[in-house]
Amino acid sequence: MAPSQAAKLLPMLLMAVVALPRGLAVFNSEELLPYVELDEAAEQLRRSLLQSSGGTVQSQSEAARAPAVPPLPQTPEEHCALTIGSWCGPYYRQTPTQRPPPKRGNTPCPNDCSGVGQCQYDFGICYCPAGYGGADCSQPRKRPCWRMDSNKRDLGWHNYTEWSHSRCAGICDDDIAMCYCPPETKYGRIEAPPGAPRGTPPVRAGRPLYWCQPSTDELGNKVMWGAVKYEDLFGRDGWCNADVPSFMCPCRIDGRIGSLCNIAVEMFCINQCSGRGDCDQGFCRCHAGWYGHDCSRRRAGLPTNTPPDYMGSKPWLEPAVTPPVAAEDPPRTKPQRVRPYIYVYDVKPDFSTDILQYRIERAHCNYRQFQHGNLTSWIGYNAYALESMLHETFLASEHRTFDPEEADYFYVPIMWACLFDVYGWNPLPRWPKEVHGPRPYGAAMMQLETVRWLNATFPWFARRGGRDHIWLTATDEGACCVFKDVWPGIFLSHWGRTEFPHTSGSQYHADNYGTGIYHRDHDGEWLDQTSRTHACFDPKKDLVVPAFKRTEHFRSSPYVGASPVERSIFLFFRGDLRLAPGQDPECKYSRCIRQTLYNRSRAENWREKYNVLLGDQATVQGDYSLLLSQSLFCLVAPGDGWSPRLEDSVLHGCIPVIIMDQVQVVFESILDMPSFSVRIAQKDMLNIISILKAISADQVQKMQDNLAKVWFRYRYLGVKMAIRDAEHVVTQHREKNGGFLRPNPGVQYAASPVDDAFSTLMQWLYARIPEIHGTEART
Ligand SMILES: *[C@@H]1O[C@H](CO)[C@@H](O)[C@H](O)[C@H]1NC(C)=O
Ligand SMILES: *[C@@H]1O[C@H](CO)[C@@H](O)[C@H](O)[C@H]1NC(C)=O
Ligand SMILES: *[C@@H]1O[C@H](CO)[C@@H](O)[C@H](O)[C@H]1NC(C)=O
Ligand SMILES: *[C@@H]1O[C@H](CO)[C@@H](O)[C@H](O)[C@H]1NC(C)=O
């Protein structure tokens, strides 16, 4: 994985951008593609696509000629192809029961959360936005810019010379540590007048001074922490003063776009507050009578028959909202339900919405964003996209319950990976406040504080010792360094490292969890409480889950209806190699696997001899999805920690060749991995060609057949945007193919959420209920 490195390079990249006369716009080109919206008939379309040959636009005779797409599975046995152990069947043998109407709370909050917070009526707890705290949100809870004075200005450009992201040469919004042009400039920020009610927006928001710090002062003296000429910011033609400035600062904060950063767009919130609230950079303020992190809950005593057009005045939210079916009162869409029942905590803002509000880039922590005209679009690539996506999937899931007493499991949606993105900007947030540890330390401490809060506030963490609590740790080294108090829970991560003892493999110091830190908040040395007490992954209780890849990412795969092409590339890998001089002197990245194989392939001319394509972006060019679809074997080697290469190969029908000693790949503990992949020990890696050549054509065919029986478990179709994306890709292939879907093996799942990654998780969790509860399942 390379996100950590990307984060390290980002500052340099952005500096380069700032230096351009007409700033920014270096987003990944993929991000600029508008998200193509399909109409409401999409669900119908999907059905017709998948029922044999897609009869809607075909004539009878065409339909008769079109070969039939294989059917979706019907029996538990059909669902459970290539699973190992006994986890898969029971879920499908359940008898559904009547879904009760959702519980509705009516416990009032102190002081009605002072008009700025959101009341959680189940418990009468205030959830406060950034800037406010205390039991009733009446206390200030600030995130000042670095070296900020009480007047929200810098303490002195020359008094302190050190640089920090959040050092502010204008005026600081100290709720979230964002910097703006000062009020005395034409496009400066003007705060709400003193004494205005809490939460009053500024009189003028002002242009942001984002990644825009001055290199000189007014008199031309050097400012040690800046890089932009004074005139370019504060001169007559500068960013803060001119209608059309000669220099543009970047505009990447959520909620505003355009080169002048003056066009208001919708901001990101988890499931966009279900269309029932106003979103403030990750914090949902629900419309009257609604509550919960996603505003899906209705306060007791209020009528439930809300108008169907609940998006109200914001029709643009529709593509981004996945209706939370479990919240319907009375239940309509899914009147019956099966277990597991999952309770999703509304996690305290400190560990959830604050982190989103502290985002400095709208593309962080996320998989989607709003563009011009509030058009919903995908974010090009975010390695940790699963965090927000999975949270939304749980909220929208029919397995969700609002009654913690009946819950089989609890999902704790802390912003673990998102914290990695915001950690470097400002000295806050930190746990403990005064310690600036590596990012895994910060995240692990935040998680520990979450458990302390859960345990002090609700009875359910202690009830089963936390064993029924589910956590996602999507970052490079997953759950390696979580505290032993949290470890009994179920960890979903992308990094299945099983060995113990273990040390951090990260080459990137900010992610290396090896540093010893003592603090009274965690009984001495943190490593003695964390990585020295457990492995990174325990296949008995944890699950390695796929990274999120939208269907467009594998659009050339035969599984989504592309025309199968000859797999003429014998072995394929494209990715980071860290070959630049000095980049990785000890060859720690990827455990030196990618680099060693790359060098050998060059030295022995594997490309010409065997048609092996192995290299980085510069040496292996072409369309990634197409290349994977043309490859027979695909290399799966680690990055700094995990790498999504297993997903890439499986989703394209390329046989994965795994070289990661003592690291399980996605679903290795629950699927018959050897039946569709090859594993090579690192010590044998230089024999990779002869090992692969020795596999018979028969065996290859078998593995390919088997890939078609599992590929769909490696993709997520739990949110509306992902489903529409899949439908769009499938529709394109269908149109190109004269109106019907090619009957490739596995194509019946092309746009179907049946047995996708989330369903797989549900099936696995269901089977584990007796063990987790220490009883037999009650159903
Ligand atoms: C910053 O330095 C100036 C000039 O040396 C001095 O007058 C001022 O008091 C200093 N301010 C702070 C906050 O230290
Ligand atoms: C986009 O959404 C924002 C925030 O809700 C709103 O202020 C703005 O008017 C919307 N823009 C358009 C073009 O609808
Ligand atoms: C949770 O609270 C119980 C009861 O106060 C305590 O015994 C237990 O140690 C706590 N667990 C954690 C992980 O803090
Ligand atoms: C790969 O080759 C480069 C360039 O010759 C060299 O600097 C590097 O050390 C080699 N790495 C490995 C792992 O062989």
Automatic annotation (TrEMBL):
Gene3D superfamilies per the UniProt record, alphabetical: Galactose-binding domain-like (2.60.120.260), Laminin (2.10.25.10)
Subcellular location: Golgi apparatus membrane
PROSITE patterns reported for this sequence: EGF_1 (PS00022), EGF_2 (PS01186), EGF_3 (PS50026)
Record's bilayer topology term: Single-pass type II membrane protein
Protein name from the UniProt record: EGF-like domain-containing protein
Biased composition (Polar residues): 52-62
Residue ranges occupied by any EGF-like domain in the UniProt entry: 105-138
GO cellular component: Golgi membrane
Keywords from the UniProt entry: Disulfide bond, EGF-like domain, Golgi apparatus, Signal
Pfam annotation, one family: Exostosin_GT47
Listed GO MF terms: glycosyltransferase activity
Species for this entry: Volvox reticuliferus
InterPro entries the record matches: EGF, Exostosin, Exostosin_GT47
